[in-house]
């Protein structure tokens, strides 16, 4: 039995349980019970979302900002959205940074030679053509780096910082190169920011400080970082050769893809659902964030298919350039600034499309009470939880500028940081039934907020 066929069997079984187990919602939600059941039922009865994600990732692969693959994926999305009969489909121009990886390698020369498995960090500069060969020093924290001071001058600094959580550990990727360069280091290697995999490196963006030299920077695997640590602990001198052709080209033209279900009574009032269509230039960007983009798209496609046109407009946005510039989110804010007072809610899907648990929410207490009521319609698929905070990098600029309520899809993320920004981010990591439930949760939440008689309060 093929994977999608098996999934279809499973979701069909789950559908009966969902519709039978859903508790009676609050009285004001009674008119929405049927619409919610129809949206959930339609989402769970097919593998349409998974098949569309497979088409995106199989056809275009990884989609870094400025690449032809991203340009082609944008054109495909516009064409397919029009075929779906969605309203006001368009590509809204955004200029994006254009970073190119090129060939790259890292090698432990002494003791050795031994290849190190690596990925250059996004926006990094390259090495000279002959590469950089230097003694390496391993540190486990910024405090340890600062204690060494100028003794790191002329060396390659290796940060061996075990992953705790993304927010805490990612600062070494973001600022580690500049912190080391300020003390005279010539390059930086970073233990990958993510949970241990099978000797899999994780890329991601860095940010150079204005007051330090720009040095090449790359991620190495957890296993290789630990090996270097053990060698150093034994008093072994480490010599590493790093070669990177990475370079930044002039900004390139890209676009946010937008499609809508236009509201029947208040079309000017908008609920946004979105993910980002770009990805890192490894893997196929299925989880980060092809799945989120497809889930947002599918949510409004279901409304269209079922003839559910809410009072207000539901707008799906496939943002560009989240990974190494955030230009798509900023571009949306700038192009829609006059409309932001009538944006009532923005929902981002960028934490994977694994089994959904509910949503994070940021907004007023009155709005929280309403979305918590709405979430009761998702109890049958175990996606009714409303967390303490919700938002995202793409919707953040608009949310902040317009003081808009925001949500993020909350999923079982136990696998997410094992494959995050790696070659392993492919569609094989995503279960069709999980993606279908994500679509259902987004569709129900956005539809009811868009259709309820009152505006979601600020």
Describe this structure in words.
- There is one protein chain.
- The chain is of the alpha/beta class and about 450 residues long.
- The chain has 2 domains: about 300 residues, Zn peptidases (Aminopeptidase), CATH 3.40.630; about 140 residues, 3-Layer(bba) Sandwich (Glucose Oxidase, domain 1).
- Helix content is about 35%, strand content about 25%.
- Strands 1-10-12-11-13-16-14-15 form an 8-stranded mixed beta sheet. Strands 3-2-9-5-6-7-8-4 form an 8-stranded mixed beta sheet, sandwiched between helices.
- Helix 2 crosses helix 8, helix 3 packs across helix 8 and helix 3 packs across helix 13.
- It is elongated, with a radius of gyration of 23 Å.
- The termini are far apart.
- About 5% of the residues have low confidence.
**Broad structural category:** alpha/beta
Task: Characterize the main sheet.
Answer: 8 strands, mixed
Overall tally of domains: 2
List the helices and strands in order. Answer: HHHHEEEEEHEHEEHEEEHEHEEHEHEHH
| Global geometry | elongated
Detail the poorly predicted runs: 5-9, 16-25
Beta-strand residue fraction:
15-25%
CATH superfamily grouping of the largest domain: Zn peptidases
Query: What is the C-alpha radius of gyration, as a whole number of Å?
Result: 23 Å
CATH class of the largest domain: Alpha Beta
Share of helix among residues? 25-40%
Number of helices: 13
CATH-level-2 architecture of the largest domain:
3-Layer(aba) Sandwich
Number of strands: 16
Instruction: Measure the end-to-end span.
Output: 50 Å
Q: Trace the largest sheet across and list its strands.
A: 1-10-12-11-13-16-14-15
- pLDDT averaged over residues: 95
- According to CATH, the fold-level topology of the largest domain is Aminopeptidase
